[in-house]
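Forum: Protein Structure Q&A
Topic: Joint prediction for protein chains with partners

I've read a bunch of threads here and the consensus seems to be that you should model interacting components together rather than docking separate models afterwards. I'd like to see that in practice. Below is the full input, 338 residues plus whatever partners are listed. Could one of the regulars post the assembled result?
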Amino acid sequence: MKLLPALIVAAISGLSLSAVAEEKILNLYSARHYQTDEALYANFTQQTGIKINRIEGKEDELLERIKNEGANSPADVFLTVDAARLAKAHELGLFAPVASKTLESRIPAHLRTEDWFSFSTRARVIVYNKAAIKAEEIQNYDDLANPRLKGKLCTRSGSHPYNLSLMASIIAHQGEAKAEEIARGMVANFARAPKGGDTDQIKAVSAGECGVTISNTYYVARLLRSTKPEDVKTMEKVGIVWPNQGTTGTHINVSGGGVLKTAPHKDAAVKFLEYLASDQAQRYFADGNNEWPVVEGMKVANPALDSLGKFKADKLPVKNLAMYQAKAQIIFDRAGFK
Ligand code: FE
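Posted by a regular:
Agreed with the consensus. Here's the joint model:
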């Protein structure tokens, strides 16, 4: 019954049905599910009158789903984390190019492409056991390959996008040969075969099972903000290093999204991306997962992130991270980084 007034308006004004359908609904496929997202979406609906239908799922599952739905997919916008996954959606031809002055002016050039955009950033830092390792020993990602760390390195899988994107940045900056040398050195330093997520690594480092690991900053911030006694204890024993401060800067990854080529509500989809780049949305979007906004000059008050101090971020374009994904996987495979 809801459609009826729209149909009448369409008949009277001669508008096509699709034009009427446009602007009222947005089908959002999101791999993000944080508490603050509720406010983020409610605010958009309030400002635009566009209702958001949310389909949430795991990153890789959602991408598969969009791919399988093909031309019939109801998806308008796909939001996910990691440049590698966004690049995959691009390579599959799922995203439509978006020309938006708002997105261009709000999002720094290195954090966007012609069809997908970053809305928050996270850094990959080195976390170490203060009793086992000195911060001076692990100032750069390269140091993780140093033989003096033999038997001390823990990490999640080499096929995980976070590690692939880090390796991609190393290839981009230092070349393939050096990247492979680093990968081999890291494997030689493993305390155990890769398993678990970043949080598991931090806990293993704190427990002394390993001496050092790499983690995305929001996992560190989440543990730092936790009031659970076991988390407080975990964080007392570890130190954090911003890697590569004297060289290329700490590796940055992103969460972001794009408009799908088959989007039934393209105008609404672009409006939504532009909304995500607004000051208010940036705050929700980034803070919901203890990340940083992409819009420059935004003030954020996140005590956990602030406690990690200021750092120099790698300015490598997200496009380049995407470009070297396949190479990164080949190098990890050759090095036995499973
Ligand atoms: Fe994560």
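Residues 1-16 have pLDDT under 50 and may be disordered.
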